[in-house]
Structures are given as structure tokens and as C-alpha cells.
Amino acid sequence: MNVPCVRVPRTDGEATRRALAEADIIDRDFEIAVEDGRLYIPVTDAEAVPAEFDVVEFDAEARSHQQTPADVLGFEPTYERLGDIVIVDEDDDERARAIADAVVASDLPADTVVNRASKVKGELRVRDWDVLAGENTEAVHREYGCEFLLDIAEVYFSPRLATERHRVAQQVEPGENAFDMFAGVGPFVVPFAKRGAEVVGCDLNEAAVRYLRENARRNGVEDNVTAVHGDVRDVAADYEGWADRIVMNLPHSADDFLDTAVRLAGDDCVIHYYDIQHEDDPYGPGISAIRDAAEPTYDVTVLTEHTVRSYAPHELNVCVDVRLTAR
Predict the structure, then answer these.
(1) 113 and 242 housed in the same domain
(2) Which of 111, 112, 260 lies closest to 180 in space, CA to CA?
(3) pLDDT-wise least confident of 39-48, 272-281, 301-310
(4) Residue of higher predicted confidence among 172 and 47
(5) Residues 43, 92: one domain?
(6) Whether residue 66 has pLDDT greater than 80
(7) Is 22 exposed, middle or buried (0-12, 13-18, 19+ CB in 10 A)?
(8) What pLDDT was estimated at residue 238?
(9) pLDDT for 29
(10) Intra-chain end-to-end CA distance of the chain, in Å
(11) CB–CB of 157/225 below 8 Å?
(12) Could you please report the per-residue DSSP string of 231-277?
């Protein structure tokens, strides 16, 4: 059916959609269409469209259901959600752009679409992004009753680890002293504090520590959380022998910090040690490294050997939960 539509290059689609939405003139009874590199956005009143936009008649499809990106593309794209941000991971720029256009044209609630432009890199564990639609890289992520504000351009965060974080948080008892050595924006710290622990979160990334403080406030646990900006090896002097529970989620190099973890550990302390190893022996190297660092001062008891996820061909991201008991 021919209806009035604003016609724009797809590169301008998101900004135009926002402007028309703010003016409340998008016609929700018809689908946004993509054709020949341009978007056609149905409007309820052609006369109300700002003069800078091109209004044409277009044969738009009536909307009969919530349109997904797959409906627009004709195939099921791979992406993940982080709040109002849609994250794609495509080496092909044209395919990434097509997915972004489909997200914009769909009913998926998203303000921004980004494509991964680099691997996680550097001491601060951040990555580069190509922003394909929208502008804002800050989002609010929710998991298991907690809310996290973060900017993916400034901090590392993986929504894929929500189940693993919940597994660990469920072990926390009220009154514990817990220390997250690489805390980020607080995905372990906040749920630990909500379960009644006193928690210290340390991170090298100043932006992450800023978000950690804000997330403690957002979740009502700021009185239970101490957020520290710095190298945990320097911070440890203030917390020697303090911790009942320690999180070491830095899987590529956590073994470099085991001496520091032992300094932090109290007489009876559980360590959640994350590692990436070959599938033939995913747990042995980590357990050996922990024993080398902790014995003979502590007895080391392995509580859990847990596979978090597949990391790469024949490599696994694993967690070893161990208890250190002072001799």
C-alpha cells in the first residue's frame, strides 16, 4: 500500500528515525523498509515532516507482527544485546552494515549498533568499536536483579558471563570479606554486597572504578563496597590476611597475581581462579600454580573444577574454586 515515507540513505537512517520519533510522526502500522541502500520510514503526516527530509510515496507493508532483524534480512544474524546496544561481530563490513540497517528497521529496542573492531587489548582490557548506528556507547545492563551502568568504549564487560557470576555469587555468605582483584564495573562486587558481604573491588581502569562506585550506589550497596583504583599488587598491603573470598577473573594472566592473592587471603579463604587452557588439561596448570603459590603456608583443597565456556578451538575458559586453609 502506498503511504508517505521519509526516504534517506541508510547511513542516515538511525538519526532520521530518532528525529521522526521525537516528532511522534512515525506510522507504526507500516514496516520500515530497506531498498537500494535507502530506508523508507512511514509517517503519519507528510505535512509535519521537517523540510530537510525527502517525503515520497512508497509501497510499505502493513505491520502484522513485531519485526525482527531476521525478517528484514532473510536470515538469522548473530548479535548480542547489552542494554540498548546491539553488538555484532562481523569481519565483512558490508554484512555488518546490513545487520545494523536491519536492527534499525526492525522493532528491536536498540539505540546503538556496534561492530567489534579489535580484540580486547592492553592492561585496561578494552576494545575498539565501529559504531554503525546511533552514537551512545553507554548502556545499562541488568542481570539477576542487579543493574550495571557502563560504557563499552571505556571498560571491559561480557554479558555472556552472567550465569558464571551468578554461580559464584550464590556461594557468598553474609558477613564475608570478599576481594575482587580485577573488579571492572562490579559484576561480582555488587551481587556479593547484595548478599551481605563486605567487598573490596580493585581495578587499573579508572573509568571502570568510577562505574563500579556508581553501580554500588544504583544497587543500594555503597555502604558495603570499597572501590579502589590501582594495581592490586600495590593495594594488597592494606588488606593482607583480610579476605574470606577472592575473585581472580583475569584468565590470561591470573597466575602472575597468585602471590598477591595469597597475601590477601585470611586463614580460611576461597579463591575463584579463572584460566584459559587446552582442553586436554584445562584445570591442572591452574591448580599447580595455586599450590606453588600457597603451600606450605596453606593447605589447598580443590572445591570445584568448572568449565565456563569454549574460548577458542581446543581451548577452554575455566574456573577452579579452591579453599586455602592456614596451617
Answers:
(1) no
(2) 260
(3) 39-48
(4) 172
(5) no
(6) no
(7) exposed
(8) 97
(9) 83
(10) 80
(11) no
(12) -HHHHGGGGTT-EEEEEE--TTTGGGGHHHHHHHEEEEEEEEEEEEE
Lookup: cell for 32: 520500515
List the grid coordinates of 238. 592494606
Mean pLDDT of 39-62: 91
The last residue of a domain, from among 19, 42, 64: 64
* Residues facing 147 on adjacent strands: 142
Q: Output the nine-digit C-alpha cell for 173.
A: 555468605
Residue 211 inside a domain? The answer is yes
Domain that holds residue 177: 156-326
Q: Identify the top-confidence range among 10-14, 72-76, 215-219.
A: 215-219
Residue 13 has pLDDT above 90, yes or no: no
Mark whether 176 and 80 lie in a shared domain: no
Mean pLDDT value across the chain: 94
pLDDT, average across residues 6-32: 87
Orientation angle between helical segments 93-105 and 13-22, nearest 10 degrees: 10
Q: What strands lie across the sheet with 112-116, from one edge to the other?
A: 79-82, 85-88, 112-116, 129-133
Q: What is the mean pLDDT of residues 38-45?
A: 93
**Based on the domain organization, do 237 and 190 belong to the same domain?**
yes
Handedness of CA 255, 257, 261, 263 (dihedral sign): positive
- Cα(3)–Cα(303) distance, integer angstroms: 65
Enumerate the β-bridge partners of residue 276. 317
Answer for the pair 194, 146: CB distance below 8 angstroms, yes or no.
yes
Based on the fold, state whether residues 60 and 104 are members of the same structural domain.
no
Neighbours of 220 (CB within 10 A): 11
For 30, the grid coordinates are 507500516
Tens digit of each residue's pLDDT (9 = 90 or more) over 175-198: 999 999 999 999 999 999 999 999
The count of domains in the chain is: 3
